[in-house]
Amino acid sequence: MNGGFVIDFHLDARSGVSPYQQLVHQVQQALRLGLLSVGDQLPTVKEVMAKVAINPNTVLKAYRELEHLGLAAARPGLGTFVTRSLAGDTLAAHQPLRVELQTWLDKALRAGLDADSIEALFMATFRQATDLRKATEASR
Description:
Layout: H1 19-32, H2 45-52, H3 56-68, E1 72-75, E2 79-82, H4 94-110, H5 115-138
């Protein structure tokens, strides 16, 4: 169990991603980071509705998708629970990387970048590094 961690859902209307998919992605991210573990309970539909002002059917659709992916299961009368983790063997490496990333983010903020600029810089650099890695692997 996660010892009290409750996933903090949020929606970005500008993302172009449907609200239910945003919820699914947020659960997947929490599973990859080890923030949610097998046996942890996801927030109830009412809790999610109260937090992000969303239609209950959207939350149910997201939870059904998580069930379809084998990541969660509904227990009638009890709620929806995590059934599988996505945290890999590299989970131990997350904390040192998180510290380095926080240092980088602090520098970016001190340099005057806003959140959108930081995200754009990170994603452009990430894509460039990914493309370079793919090209290097393909040439082997």
